[in-house]
Design goal:
Blueprint lengths: L1 H5 L36 H24 L4 H33 L10
Helix pairs in contact: 2-3
Length: 113
């Protein structure tokens, strides 16, 4: 989990996993691990967007029914909450999946005839 939470390299533990908000570095600057060779995929993005969408929708309905603010308050509150939640949880999920792939030495499957 620390790989995702803190952006640590799964091999050496240096904080070199991410080069941007959710973009992996091509290599670890400390140990030379080729991070770009790992294939995490886009599954976490779709899954986390659906989860955050459900959470934000429920909270927006609750806020509307309890307080009844104008529409611009909803836009002002929920757009940044959704974006920040998806981006941060995507970092955690991608880091965790990359660390699991590294730890388990996962590779592409091959069918042996």
């Amino acid at each position: 989990m620390e790989c995702g939470l803190k952006g640590l390299c799964p091999r050496c533990g240096a904080a070199t996993l991410f080069a941007g908000a959710v973009r992996f570095s091509p290599t670890c600057g400390a140990c030379g691990l080729r991070i770009g060779d790992f294939n995490v995929g886009d599954g976490p993005a779709a899954f986390l967007t659906l989860i955050w969408g459900a959470i934000v929708t429920a909270l927006a309905i609750w806020l509307e029914l309890s307080v009844g603010p104008p529409w611009w308050v909803h836009a002002l509150v929920w757009v940044p909450v959704t974006a920040a939640g998806v981006v941060y949880s995507l970092r955690v999920a991608k880091g965790w999946l990359l660390a699991a792939e590294f730890r388990n030495a996962a590779r592409e499957g091959k069918i042996t005839p």
